[in-house]
Specification:
Elements: H1 11-48, H2 61-74, H3 78-87
Helix pairs in contact: 1-2
Length: about 90
């Protein structure tokens, strides 16, 4: 994703970016919820399994990694939110 200077954008461009931001927030929330559900299901299955092997936790790190990347990516939108708030568009 390219780094944009939001302070130099026009109001129309900022409104388009605001719509994209809303869509991405909803998508990120759904993705985080889905991955958290997978993680909870996996941990619950491991706890209820009488054969508790630690190797089962290795695939459970993938949802944690993806959740971390989604949260880290969503923090990059703070610049856009600041410019929108500054111009009174939010």
């Amino acid at each position: 994703m390219e780094k944009r200077d939001f302070s130099e954008m026009t109001t129309e461009e900022l409104l388009i970016e605001q719509k994209k931001l809303k869509k991405s927030k909803i998508t990120h929330a759904l993705l985080i919820g889905f991955l958290a559900g997978i993680l909870i299901f996996g941990i619950t299955a491991w706890i209820l399994n009488p054969d508790r092997r630690l190797g089962f936790f290795i695939p459970m790190f993938l949802p944690v990694l993806f959740i971390y990347k989604v949260i880290k990516n969503s923090k990059n939108n703070a610049d856009l939110e600041a410019v929108l708030k500054e111009r009174g568009l939010s």
